[in-house]
Amino acid sequence: MENNQLISKELNDSFDQTIALIQDLSDIQVNRKPDEHSWSIGQVVEHILISSTGIPDRSTEPTDRAFDELVPAINGIFLDFSTKFDADPALQPRKDAYIAEDLIQQLKDRKTKLILKIKDKNLRLLCKDSEFPQLGYLTGFEWLTVISSHTKRHNSQIERTKALLEEIGQQ
């Protein structure tokens, strides 16, 4: 289960970074938008939470490829900050107002649930419930890499949003 420990550490670090980025923000700061076309930090965090509920693994099967073969492609997609994506409508934030402390607690809870859920799981199996756009079916390990890399991407967005709000004197 060495791979489980590796991806658990990745998830832990990604979520802890999100928590560190927002832990000193007030509710007002969490809800401010740098412009009308951007998400607030609260909306970014809600998007992270919606996108990280787990892996689609009700139906799995062995695969003949390396369990982590698509990790470089996944990281390439999410950690290329020069590329902008539109969130799938199902993954878009649903609220306009957030309480910072509630978001922090939800992040802690989500991190704990994910890590506990995968502790003894075989992450080398191909998850057949859902395909990832352009890449196809992923292993459990690769789906968790999606969650970790996606969270890191949005941590960068939170950092940029905080800097923009400071710059325009709203923080």
Automatic annotation (TrEMBL):
InterPro entries: DinB-like, DinB/YfiT-like. It comes from the Bacteria. Residues 14-158 form the DinB-like domain. Gene3D superfamilies: dinb family like domain (1.20.120.450). This is DinB superfamily protein.
